[in-house]
Amino acid sequence: MNGLVISCSVATTLAAQRIVSALTGTGKAVKYPASLRELPFGVTVDSVKDVTQAIPVQIDGVAYVTFGDSVGAGELVSSDTSGQGKLFALALTSTAISLPAAYAGILFDEKVNVTGTAAHLLIRPGFDRAST
Questions:
Q1: CA–CA dist 113, 107 (Å, integer)
Q2: How far apart are CA 69 and CA 81, in angstroms?
Q3: Do 70 and 125 lie in a common domain?
Q4: More confident position, 14 or 27
Q5: Within 10 Å of residue 75's Cβ, how many Cβ atoms?
Q6: What is the span of the domain harbouring residue 73?
Q7: CB within 8 A of 101, min separation 6: which ones?
Q8: pTM score, two decimals?
Q9: Which of 27, 63, 124, 126 gets the highest tally of CB atoms within 10 A of its CB?
């Protein structure tokens, strides 16, 4: 962990090393992104199993993220609905472009090949056109 960490509330249990987005309509609350349309802004540092507890969320720098898919070093990373990192596939042709989609940052480690592997993510969220 290397970056700014803030305390957030939760509406459900969350695991450590997962990508999170804001819970709409509730200030300073986080959840796993429900789709690629939700901009992630941080990574959980710890787990929380009780909705009355706060969870530490790293919002910049380099953080460990658990991956649910293969991603190459230096590639953009988005999130699945469980907060695990996955490849963000850029649309390289006009026929492959879909709606704008969000990514969480860049894989700052060697290639991830095994589901459940934790690797460094450089937190740099944004939107682009994805092919998925």
A1: 12
A2: 13
A3: yes
A4: 14
A5: 16
A6: 62-129
A7: 36, 37, 78, 88, 127, 128, 129, 130, 132
A8: 0.90
A9: 63
Is residue 68 within 8 Å of residue 110, measured between CB atoms?
no
Our count of domains for the chain comes to 2
Type of residue at 128: D
Q: Report the b/e string of 47-57 with b at 16+ CB within 10 A.
A: ebeeeeeebbb
- Quick one: 101 and 82 in the same domain? yes
Closest CA to 19 of 103, 109, 112: 103
Same domain, 40 and 87: no
pLDDT at residue 100, rounded to an integer: 79
The answer on 51 and 88 residing in a single domain is no
pLDDT band at 73 (very low <50, low <70, confident <90, very high): very high
Whole-number Å distance between alpha carbons of 132 and 124: 20
Secondary element (H or E) of residue 122: strand 118-129
